[in-house]
Amino acid sequence: MSDPIRSFLAIELPNFLKFKLEEFIRSLQKKTGKTKWVKESNLHLTLKFLGNQPAEKINALIPALTGGYPPLPPFRLTTTKFGAFPSKQRPRVFWLGTAATPQTTLSDLRNRIENSLEPLGFEKETKPFRPHLTLGRSKIPEDFSTLWEYVETHPFPPFSFEVNHFVLMRSILKPEGAEYRILQKFSLRK
Ligand code: 3AM
């Protein structure tokens, strides 16, 4: 059998937004020491992490996610506030929130994915979906007070973009960081 494929489903970000986020990340980077910040080309919104799966299972999910009824329409996403998981006091993941318009469209897409993949043996996510763009990850605790002060006074502005497709992304783990490659695009229909 072929080697397992580590992958996830994600919404790609337009170049203008990745560029703006990269500028923002560069400012945040100056306020921290040991936090690892996401490089511009890797910025995305994760819809579902699929983990390591046999190639056959990944191939089977493509028809399961193509089509479906009723068709899911394109929608808009707008960036919202900067925050951290699990909390501001003990941040592990720094993120930027997103809001969808119309509001239900992103959760409809997420539910469609969960429901379409469950029969193929992909376990449903039990935790509530909190759509976000991961900007950085902190493994070694440090003092983030300057970072929080900075984002209070320099919030990332709300930027909007249209989501008309999502992607199946392969994640190749390398010592210098993950490399992502698009395996398949799935269109949303007007
Ligand atoms: O884009 P974010 O950061 O939300 O954290 C990983 C990233 O999500 C997540 O999958 C995305 C692409 O790597 N991820 C990695 N390992 C995971 C795991 N074991 C995971 N999500 C859930 N469980």
Q: What report would you give on this structure?
A:
The protein is α+β, with helices and mostly antiparallel strands. It has one domain (5-187): Alpha-Beta Complex (Cyclic Phosphodiesterase, Chain: A). It has helices at residues 15-29, 55-65, 104-117, 145-153, and strands at residues 5-12, 36-37, 44-53, 75-85, 93-101, 132-137, 160-163, 165-172, 179-187. Strands 2-6-5-4-7 form a five-stranded antiparallel β-sheet, with helices on both faces. It is globular and about 50 Å long. The N and C termini lie far apart (39 Å). The site of ligand 3AM has 5 residues, from strand 3.
What is the CATH topology? Cyclic Phosphodiesterase, Chain: A
Extended strand count:
9
Number of helices: 4
Low-confidence blocks of residues: none
Tally of structural domains: 1
Mean pLDDT: 96
Strand content: 35-45%
Main attributes of the structure:
190 residues, Cyclic Phosphodiesterase, Chain: A, 4 helices, binds ligand 3AM
Give a summary of the structure in a few sentences.
This protein has 190 residues and is an alpha+beta fold. It is 26% helix and 35% strand. The chain has one domain (5-187): Alpha-Beta Complex (Cyclic Phosphodiesterase, Chain: A).
Write the layout of secondary structure elements.
Elements: E1 5-12, H1 15-29, E2 36-37, E3 44-53, H2 55-65, E4 75-85, E5 93-101, H3 104-117, E6 132-137, H4 145-153, E7 160-163, E8 165-172, E9 179-187
Antiparallel strand pairs: 1-3, 1-8, 2-6, 4-5, 4-7, 5-6, 8-9
